[in-house]
Structure formats: structure tokens, C-alpha cells
């Protein structure tokens, strides 16, 4: 793991201000400033400039940041690999899944993984896609099963497992619950309960609205959990999205109705996301099991 002045430099680059970097690092702002000055003296060029909007990297700083970040990732991978070989973390799988992919991921992995590796420990994080990406970046999650974004940070890699179509989720008292299926045009005048603005499902449905020339979605309520969306939808006339293929319909509340959306191309690719580089042995095996399960869908 990169530490010292280089770590301070990486933190400034990611937070954008000296104040936020100092808060994240747990040190004073003058200490961060001195660290950057020391680093700049060693490098021989200015790396960070302070502006009215915060701290920005110079052109030299951007190139230096790319190189240091790559070295940091390689060093982190080397440390994790050494721990795995030493046995300290060889049996720990840190896996993430969205509310819609949790059922697929856990039904695929259990009991196979624990039968094969009785000493294994599994830590499961359930969150929407944007939060899972943050968890991967912080190395709190090693492998995530989630919708795949069109673009991904260079520090991460993705792999498609299967395609998943969207469905509409409404209360049983909503007029659209009487339909066998709905079109995008049916949703134009609806009020929505949605996940965060950065979550892939919301991004994709907003893009579909824009592509067809429809007004922007009218989002009345936002929630960061499927349970919260269930509660909001079941007690209001708001509509929301769900991916019925990967979600186990058994636990659906009795007052929730799910209807397919008829629109060619409105689907998302679900797959695996992880950091580039080293992958622990147990995560490699989990990846193989998930691939096999996806082929059987």
C-alpha cells in the first residue's frame, strides 16, 4: 500500500480539495500542504494548483498521478496475494450484489462453495450498483454481481453473465396493474420512485425516455434499497423498475404487481465487476461457479 506523501497526493487527487483530503486522512490541512510541498521538491515540478474551486492537478500532476495510482494498485495486489499464499485471508470471499441480483448470486454460490471449501467465510454486501463500485474501489468488495455500465474506470474490469429485461413495479391498485404489459409511452405521465441518479437502471430508463423524445421522468421519491422501494410503491401510485428475471418473486409483497415493459433494446447486461489485477483463489472459484450458473439461465 502506498503511504506517506504519495498517499496524501493520491487523496488530494481523489477528493479535489486540501480540506477534504485532510479530513479523510485524519490530519490537519497544513500537514497535507507540507506533504505536497515535500513531494513537489522531490519531483522537481508543481503537481497541485489551488484554485477557487479547490485543488487541481497540473498536467505534470495528472501524468504523475496515473503512474503512482498504477503502482499503488500493483502493490495492493501483491500484498493481497502474499496474504492469500500465507493463508491469512485465503478463505474469505467478499462479494457484492444488487438487490435484484442477490438471489441469483447466493443461490448459485450456496451450498457449492461451502461444500468445496468448508473453512471458507463469506461476507455479502447488498447495495445498488453505484455503491458497489465504490465498495470495490475501497477494496471492501472483491467481486460484484451487478448490472454492467457502458463505461468503467480503468482500474476495474467487467464480464457479462446474462441479459436481464426490465419490468414495471406498481401497487396492485394502480391502473397499470390491470395490464398484461406496458410500453414506455404508458409511463410518460407516471410519477416515479427510483434509485439514486447514478444507479444504472435509472440512467438507462432516463436515456430511453430521452431517445424517444419523452419528457424527463418525474421522480418523486428516491431510495437506496429495494425494501424501501417496495414500501413506497405499495402505499402510493408511484411506479418503479425491477429486473424480474434475476429477482426471486417469492418474497414480493402481496400488494405489489410486476408487469413487463415492451420496448426493444431496454435491457441491461448483468455480470461481474472487480478490480483489475490479482483475484484471490476463493473469488476465482466463485467467479467460475457464477459463470456456470449463468449459462443455465
UniProtKB/TrEMBL annotation:
Chain segments annotated as coiled-coil in the UniProt record: none
CC terms in the record's Gene Ontology section: cytosol
PROSITE patterns the UniProt entry points to: HTH_LYSR
Alphabetically ordered keywords of this record: DNA-binding, Transcription, Transcription regulation
SUPFAM superfamilies: Periplasmic binding protein-like II, Winged helix' DNA-binding domain
Entry GO MF terms: DNA binding; DNA-binding transcription factor activity
Pfam family, one: HTH_1
Domain HTH lysR-type: residue ranges: 1-58
Protein name: HTH lysR-type domain-containing protein
Natural source organism: Paraburkholderia phytofirmans OLGA172
